[in-house]
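Target chain:
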Amino acid sequence: MDRAGADMWASTFTLAMAERKPQDVWVLLPEHSLVPGCLDGGGVQYLLVGLSRVP
């Protein structure tokens, strides 16, 4: 994702969380070691993706 896309996503996330949990402070920190399309061999990313789909 390019910088403009990341900034747009961060802005959208911040607005959504401010509406849902205004008492909390949310900060997105970039993880520079992540590679798009390459899942971690430990399965943590897979687990997070799977759990994010649970209603």
In short: The helical segments are 3-20, 44-52. The mean pLDDT is 73. The radius of gyration is 14 Å. The chain is about 50% helix and 0% strand.
